[in-house]
Amino acid sequence: MPCDLILALDVPTREQAAPILRQLRGSLRWVKIGLQMFTAYGPDYVKAVADEGFQVFLDLKLHDIPNTVAKAVESLAPLPIGMLTLHTLGGREMMAAARQAQQQTKPELLLLGVTVLTSMDGTALNEIGVPAAPEAQVGRLGELAVSAGLNGLVCSPLEVGLLRQRLPASVKLVTPGIRPAGEAGSDDQKRIMTPADAARAGSSYIVVGRPILKAKDPAAAARAILAELGA
Ligand code: C5P
Predict the structure, then answer these.
(1) Catalytic residue at 61?
(2) Which of 61, 106, 172, 190 is catalytic?
(3) Nearest CA to ligand 1 atom 14
(4) Phi, psi of 107 (to 5 degrees)
């Protein structure tokens, strides 16, 4: 199954993002706009990145009562986005409400459920009252999300094998927590894998931020990952 790269555009200013995007036009397809850039620049920046020819993954990780999340999906529907995230911890009713709003306003949008953040390990889950190990919790939340109608999941590459066994092949699995071989340190990510291993495990997309953004030549780092994926 082919696996594509999504660049997590986690930089403070659009001026810092501009040269990276300019150099990657034509080779990179997907850019993820997360809380940092959306909070700073809002919907206009989503349009600006799409106007540069990129597909936009808007990673807002919505998590609220069903009505509020559904209304947020409706408000976001006019934007040129191809993927949007919500937290599966919001529960079945919240995910189903989001799904209904998406079907009515933007049926082509991939609605992705965040399972367990890749920055969390078993100890962190226990601290918030979840006795399950990360894999078990991801399996449980993944099945719930798909049964509530979501098109895909965000999980660690370490859980992709288990999810591929349990879920229909059409479910998109998007995996952050990627660290190229030889990368020093994993920042705050706990459950990690290399790009090639994540692709082999069955990820539909890998999300990479700091290993590209902190490189001396971010565009070259992104191209190296694309080459590793055979994309
Ligand atoms: O810099 P790094 O490659 O660790 O960036 C990973 C990106 O993926 C960040 O933008 C982060 O918000 C996002 N993410 C994550 N874990 C999840 C969901 C999203 O790290 N479960």
Answers:
(1) yes
(2) 61
(3) 176
(4) -60, -25
Ligand 1 pocket list (CB less than 6 A): 8, 10, 34, 114, 117-118, 154, 176, 187, 189, 207-211
Of 3.40.50.720, 3.30.70.80, 3.30.450.40, 3.20.20.70, the CATH number of 4-229 is 3.20.20.70
The one-letter code for the residue type at 207 is: V
Sorted by where each begins, the domain ranges of the chain are 4-229
Looking from the CA of residue 114, the nearest atom of ligand 1 is 21
Token representation of residue 212: 């590209």
Helix segments in 159-207, DSSP class H: 160-166, 195-201
Whole-number pLDDT of residue 118: 84
**Ligand 1 test: best mutation among 84, 118, 175, 212, most atoms within 8 Å of CB?**
118
Q: pTM surpassing 0.70?
A: yes
Residues 35-85 pLDDT 10s: 999 999 999 999 999 999 999 999 999 999 999 999 999 999 999 999 999
Q: What is the pLDDT of residues 171-224, one digit of tens each?
A: 999 999 899 887 767 777 777 899 999 999 999 999 999 999 999 999 999 999
DSSP string, 69-130: HHHHHHHHTTS--SEEEEEGGG-HHHHHHHHHHHHHH-TTSEEEEE-S-TT--HHHHHHTT-
**Closest ligand 1 atom to Cα of 10:** 10
- How remote is the CA of residue 8 from the centroid of ligand 1, in Å? 7
Helix (H, G, I), strand (E, B) or coil at 32: strand
